[in-house]
Amino acid sequence: MAGGADPEPFKISVPEEAIEQLKQRLSLTKFPSQLESARMWDFGPPVSELKRLATYWKDEFDWRKAEAALNELPQFKTTIDIAEFGDVEIHCQVANSAKFDFGINRKGFSLDKYAETLNKLMLKLGYEKYITQGGDWGFWVTRAIGRQYPQSCMASHINMVLAKPPELAKNPLLAIQHAVLPYSQREKDGLERSEWFWKEGYGYNLLQSTKPQTIGFALADSPVALLAWIYEKLHDWTDNYPWTDDEILTWISIYWFSTAGPEASVRIYYEASHPESPSTATTWDRLRSWIPHVKVGMAHFPREISVVPKTWAATLGPVVYHSEHERGGHFAAWERPDVIASDLHKMFGKGGPCYGVVTGRAGY
Predict the structure, then answer these.
(1) Are 256 and 249 in contact (CB under 8 A)?
(2) What is the mean predicted confidence (pLDDT) over 242-268?
């Protein structure tokens, strides 16, 4: 049983004193010097850009306007009883997702626990069978749910595809295809993009996966450190998406004002990399391997941080839907929400390969 209290309506309401404290911290920022180069972003966010955004954040950004827009979507809070952790409070937003950083302050909240939490949430809401969609951490959690709860998770759609080359012992037909068929131009470009990420964009992950508390001090204490840490990804991981200042600062403010604090958001990297029981736990490697029984759909975007060939992607499970798009990056649900919605309609709508996969809930 999922346990815990029934979902209750929730509205975001940041105390005024928290907003004033943010402005005070912004006014006391000590900015670093700048390495001069024709390619300033190679070093990280340019100082001049951060100064401009910090000034706007302090003097002009209207959090109350952003807060009101967020509150237009129905939101709820509830608790879920998780093995070894008791009642865990989660925040659900209709048309979005359950919040992933549950603010757990005790080691051991691994990917298994994230999957357990969200599966129990769906059961609590009355969905004994359901489908999932995800990118970024949603890829890993979606995969973990499918691996642990195939009796409930009927199908998944992913927009970040992390997979390994097929192996003859595990995927003989795919391995032969991979060996004899040349890569398409899209696949060649995708591998080049992926190589760039592993060489030039992966440093944050190594730190958060090994010493999350170290970066946690900066994220919890300095709003500009938090801004720089996240804004770099918004810039580098998208497909020339025209971020507005208000969009950027709304994203960063949600981290800053979160109940658990911005430092809580990086702990999942450590937990996923250090499971309590590696021999049986839901590990990175197992989630990038074949998961049976759960049908898979996937969308490929050219500026995603991992863009793999189709033969690699096919090793993840029974792939029933596949799409390739000319534009889009890592934050596809934000950059190209129309495309994600269209994919889901094609995959789960009438005539789609997963139409009626959840009995009695076809959407028509």
Answers:
(1) no
(2) 96
For residue 278, name the pLDDT band (cuts at 50, 70, 90): confident
Over range 205-212, report the average pLDDT.
97
Spatial distance between the Cα atoms of 91 and 134, rounded to a whole number of angstroms: 17
pTM of the shown model: 0.94
Output b/e per residue, 116-138; b: 16+ Cβ within 10 A. bbbbbbbbbeeeebbbbbbbbbb
Q: Which residues of 221-239 are buried (b: 16+ CB within 10 A; e: fewer)?
A: ebbbbbbbbbbbebbbbbb
What are the start-end ranges of the H helices in 258-309? Answer: 267-273, 284-287
- Helix/strand/coil (H, E, C) string of 240-267? CCCCCHHHHHHHHHHHHHCCCCHHHHHH
The arithmetic mean of pLDDT across residues 46-68, rounded, is 98
Instruction: For the chain, give the mean pLDDT.
Output: 93
| Helix, strand, coil content of the chain in percent (nearest 5) | 50, 10, 40
